[in-house]
Each structure stands twice: as C-alpha cells, then as structure tokens.
Amino acid sequence: MTDSNSRIPISVVNKRAFIWEVDDIAVIRAKYRICGILTGTLPHVSQQNVFLGVPLLLMPEEVVLLVENGSAVLVDDPRAYPEPSPEQIKEWDSARLESIQKQVSIAESLKGTSTPNTRSMSEEAVRKRREREQRKAKPTEEEEEVEPTPKTSVSGHPAYNIVIPASSSSMKWYSPDACTYASIDSAKAAGIWDYPSNLHERAKCGVFRSLWEQGYFMGGGIKFGGDYLVYPGDPMRYHSHFTATVIDSPLSALQPMEIVAHGRLGTATKKAHLICCWDDEKREVTTMSIEWAGFG
Q: Do residues 210 and 285 make contact, with C-beta atoms less than 8 angstroms apart?
C-alpha cells in the first residue's frame, strides 16, 4: 500500500471520475495499464473531435481498480474549491495586474532594439498590401489624377503578446485535503461515489480485474457488441484480440442466438469473443472463448 500523499488524485464530479494532470495520465498508462478516454477540447482546434486533450475520463471499473490497489485516491472536486474571500479575490487581482504591467514594461523596453530584420510580419504585410493597392489605383491618362487617401498608419514597433495569468499559485484556492478518500467505502459514505452498487457492477469490476491481472489492457467494447475490448499491449500499438461480455453468474441463462451473434461478430472483426462469468460467492471469474468455425 503506497502512502496517500503519493497516490494519484482522481477528481470526482457528479460521480464521474477525471484525471487532469498530464504526468498522472502518463503514469497510469505506463505503470498501471489504465488508458481511459481523453475528453477535453484542444485550445487551437476546438471544432475537431478526433484528437482530444485533458481531462482523462476513467471507466468506473478503472477507478475501483486503482483505488483498491492503493494507487489512487478520490477527491470531491466541487468541495476542493472553497469560495474565496473578498481579500483573496483582491490579492489575486493585484497579482494579475502586476504580472501584466511587468510584461508590458519588458516589452516596451525591448521595442527600441528592433531592426528591419526583426519587424513584425503583420507590419511588413500591411506595407506591401498598401503598395499594391496604390499601384492598382494609379489613374489612366483619361482619368483625373488625385492624391490617394492616406490610410491609417501601422505602428513601427514589433508586435508582442501579453499573457494574462488565469490563476495564482499563491492563492491556494484548491484545498482537497478535507475531501480526499482513500477507499471506495469511504467515498460511498461521503456520497461522492457509488460504484459498484449491485451484482452486475460487482461482476464487471471482478471481470475487469481478472483480465487486467493477466496483463491485458482494457477499453470500452460497446462498438463491438461487448463490455470490454481486450488488448495484448498498449492500444496505441496493438489491435484488440478479444471482445469480452460480462455474465453476472455462472448459472445465468444464455440464449443460443446470443452465442451465434457473439461468434459471428467476433469473426467479422477478427476477434474472439470472451464470455466472462462472475461467481459472486467465490469471487472468481470463469472465461469461455467463442470463435465462428463455419467457413464454408
């Protein structure tokens, strides 16, 4: 069991679990074989939805595994941000203004050192466009020659950016110590987490752990007709070899049509389909593999 201060914090909001730190995301993937799903919009390509950024959304089974293994803690994220006092807001605003003024002062001190080779591209582009427009506007012999209307001049100083800080580390507005939970039971008692709460959810956690302990990477399998996709290595490098379906009990009824569907679907997607039966009394998993063998 690792020390609670060294465990990865998992932020819980509306009983959904997120990881915000990039370093923590790398650790759980490389060390614990937990991938999750990136759900954040990238700042410069906010309209696309293929390549996403932080936060990382975890499946409930991944959360339970990490917490029960002592690798992570659950943080009640809304409570970790207490409402700031007027004095804290004033201090934060002063720090912001001081940072902006400092950046402006540095930029103003450097603007006199620019050379023609370091002029901003926007200024050079505006100058060239003005010259082209003046050449096009040159009157013909039949037209009356008039003075071109002067355009608004562009500053000769190099352009610079001012970064406005969004937060200040000195404010300490994030205070998770009083709302951090090192076990699933304590998080349930606090009302921030309730998974697993029934037999089917316990079965999913048991199957997930069983496959994970065999060295597999796990991902959501709904697109392939199962509960999980099972990978032999990191999904960035390997295709999944199995689709897994969770059965709540070894005595649960399974219709013949379900077996046929799972077998044909697995073959069509070049995967075998796993039927994973959870025994809640013995806390054990029995796994069967289905492959379609009728090739003609």
A: yes
What are 176-203's pLDDT values in tens digits? 989 999 999 999 999 999 999 999 999 9
Is beta strand 8-13 parallel, antiparallel or unpaired with respect to 16-19?
antiparallel
What are the tens digits of pLDDT across the range 72-124? 999 999 999 888 888 888 888 888 888 888 888 887 777 655 544 444 555 67
Q: Which phi and psi (to 5°) does residue 56 adopt?
A: -95, 125
pLDDT at 152: 44
Domain ranges of the chain: 1-110+163-190, 196-290
Architecture of domain 196-290: 3-Layer(aba) Sandwich (3.40)
pLDDT of res. 94 = 87
Q: How far apart are CA 267 and CA 296, in angstroms?
A: 14
Rounded Cα distance between 255 and 277, Å, is 15
**Where does the chain have alpha helices with state H?**
22-30, 60-68, 86-110, 121-136, 184-190, 199-213, 256-268
Give the phi and the psi of residue 75 in degrees, each rounded to 5: -120, 125
Residue 225 backbone class (left: φ over 0; alpha: ψ -120 to 50; beta: rest): left
Q: Which of the residues are catalytic?
A: 231, 239, 271
Distance CA(57)–CA(219), nearest Å, equals: 12
